[in-house]
Structures are given as structure tokens and as C-alpha cells.
Write a structure and sequence with these properties.
Elements: E1 3-9, H1 16-29, E2 34-40, H2 41-48, H3 55-68, E3 76-80, H4 86-95, H5 100-104, H6 107-115, H7 124-127, H8 129-138, E4 144-147, H9 152-169, E5 178-181, H10 209-217, H11 238-246, H12 249-261, H13 266-292, H14 295-323
Parallel strand pairs: 1-2, 2-3, 4-5
Helix pairs in contact: 3-13, 4-8, 4-14, 8-9, 10-13, 11-13
């Protein structure tokens, strides 16, 4: 089976946008690929190094959500980045040969500096995080990395580093991973912007039912509908865009028509959405409760995943050390 690798940064809780985007796709991929999925806790330090106290809890919560969303440790390998020190070793070695200009042109380098103005990001770790990300990928020598179109520049620098390494040492150590392009639906947050923990507008997988209902009940709709009798345009309503993800075609048509004609109010529209979101979330809540009640099971799953992942990384690093004259 061809190998697939992907990870999630341990910088906060996962939300329903992560579920319908990344996790849902990962669950499908584990049926036909040799999948490795990990929590990137070191990556959380690239922007959160001054306040690392939440990383441990975030890591645990992400692992729980991996499993609750349907990842099966019998079908895929689940592990934590920092438990496999070979990631750090390869990061160091790749940093020796990665041109500075490559890092400075990564699109998110300046974007995140603007977005996170309250943090000092003038650090080597932040500038060099694409090298760590490349090490995370290349050390497993995967055939595919599932990405959206907007993430392709991040994968491209990994391909460039692999290409440069192979050229410098005249040996095909690293295959260039290919992007497994995935159509990630745009999931709006409660304020209409893209759902993100950074914007504090997310519905989290760990939110209790009462909180999920409250967030969806107070979610913004078409600004033109100030009164129940006002007609609106469903395309301007973030609630309707969630209907496109969670509701049936018939329900989507009904709420869209009701919005255009003022045939239904926004509260009625949201009730349909809440019902459908609950249908998706209820098995996740149940599984989360079971997993959180059995911490020994979580640790055993991560332990086994770590052992399997380390067998791959040790083999890769033996080849890398030999190639670079370090044995």
C-alpha cells in the first residue's frame, strides 16, 4: 500500500471545520493507504514557545478526536511528533542545506507575523518551521500528503528540499512526495469568517451539546434579514453554508426558499441545522466520553503507534547518516 502522512499542530482544540475537512478525509484514506497521522507538538512551539502550558492537554484532546472521528489504530498509525527524536535530527541536518531565501518566501511567513502581532516571531524556530515540517514528512518517505490547494506551497518546499538533498549527495534518498489534493469545504465560523480557533468563532468537537446549540442559535445570518418578515439571500448567510455541509439537498432547498421569501425565520432555519449537526456529533461525543474514561487505552494506542513509526524513522536516518558521512 502507498504511504500517506499528515499531522495536526497541537495549538488548540479541533473544531467541526477540521472534522469535515481533514479528519473525514483521513478516515476514508485509511481504508486504501498505509496512513501515518500525528500530533505536531513541537510545531506548536514555533508560535507558542512563551506559553507552552497548554500543549500537553491539546495533544491529548487531538488524539481523542482522531479516534472519536473514526481513525482506527488497526488501520493507521497514530503517534506524537516529540516522542520520535529522529524528527529533530533530520530537521537539524536538513537545515544545514536549506537556503534562507526559500524560507523567507513561504507565503505564511509574513502572513502569520501580521496575524499574530502580539507575539515575537523573529525567531529561528518560526523562520525554520518549514524545514521541521519537511523533516516530519520526508522521514517517512511517503508517496502522498493530503493537502488543499492553498497548502501546496508548503508541500513544494518539502519537494525542493528533497530534490536538493538528492542532488547534493547524488543519491535518491528521498522520493518527492505528491500532494493528494482534497476539496476542503469552506466552513464558516459563528461570525461569518472562516472557522478558526484564532478568531474564537469555532464549534469545537469537545464542546458539550448545550454549548454547540447556543453557538449555532446565535450564529449570524444574512444581515439583510433584520426582521422576521424581511426577505434575504441564503448565499449571504453563513448558516446556509453550514447547511450545505450538514443538511440534505431537500432541506437545503427548503431553507433557501424560506429565506428568499421570508417563509421561515432564522431561528427555524437554525433548528434544522442544529438537528443535523447533532446527528454528526452524537457518536463523536459518545466515543470521546469512552476514551476520556480510559486514559490507559489512549497511552497504549500512542505507544504502539510510536514504535511502528520509529521503526520507519530509524531506517531512514541510518541511510541519511551514511549518505552525509556521519556513520
Amino acid at each position: 500500500m502507498q504511504r500517506v502522512l499528515s499531522g495536526v499542530q497541537a495549538s488548540g482544540k479541533l473544531h467541526i471545520g477540521n472534522l469535515v475537512g481533514a479528519l473525514g478525509n483521513w478516515v476514508r484514506l485509511q481504508e486504501t493507504y498505509d496512513c501515518y497521522y500525528f500530533v505536531a507538538d513541537w510545531h506548536a512551539l514555533t508560535t507558542g514557545y512563551a506559553h507552552p502550558e497548554g500543549i500537553k492537554e491539546s495533544t491529548k484532546d487531538i488524539i481523542v478526536n482522531f479516534l472519536a472521528a473514526g481513525l482506527d489504530p488497526e488501520k493507521c498509525t497514530i503517534f506524537i511528533q516529540s516522542r520520535i527524536l529522529e524528527h529533530a535530527e533530520l530537521h537539524l541536518l536538513l537545515s544545514m542545506l536549506t537556503p534562507l531565501g526559500w524560507l523567507e518566501r513561504v507565503p505564511t511567513y509574513k502572513e502569520k507575523q501580521q496575524e499574530l502581532k502580539d507575539r515575537d516571531l523573529s525567531t529561528y524556530g518560526f523562520l525554520g518551521y518549514p524545514v521541521l515540517q519537511s523533516a516530519d514528512i520526508l522521514i517517512y518517505r511517503p508517496r502522498h500528503v493530503p493537502v488543499g490547494v492553498d497548502q501546496m506551497p508548503h508541500l513544494e518546499i518539502t519537494r525542493e528540499i528533497a530534490r536538493r538533498f538528492n542532488h547534493l549527495y547524488q543519491r535518491e534518498v528521498f522520493p518527492e512526495p505528491e500532494g493528494l489534493l482534497t476539496e476542503f469545504p469552506k466552513v464558516p465560523g459563528t461570525d461569518g469568517r472562516k472557522m478558526s480557533k484564532s478568531y474564537d468563532n469555532a464549534v469545537y468537537l469537545s464542546d458539550p451539546p448545550s454549548e454547540v446549540e447556543q453557538k449555532l442559535r446565535t450564529m449570524m445570518t444574512d444581515p439583510a434579514r433584520k426582521r422576521r418578515t424581511d426577505k434575504g439571500d441564503p448565499e449571504f448567510s453563513p448558516v446556509y453554508h453550514l447547511h450545505k455541509i450538514f443538511s440534505t439537498k431537500e432541506e437545503q432547498a427548503e431553507v433557501a426558499e424560506g429565506c428568499r421569501t421570508a417563509g421561515i425565520g432564522c431561528i427555524d432555519c437554525k433548528k434544522v441545522l442544529i438537528k443535523n449537526v447533532f446527528t454528526v456529533m452524537e457518536p463523536i461525543w459518545k466515543k470521546r466520553s469512552e476514551l476520556l474514561g480510559d486514559p490507559g487505552l489512549l497511552e497504549e494506542i500512542v505507544r504502539k503507534g510510536t514504535l511502528k513509526a520509529r521503526a520507519v524513522t530509524e531506517e531512514t536516518m541510518q541511510t541519511v547518516r551514511e549518505t552525509m558521512g556521519l556513520r
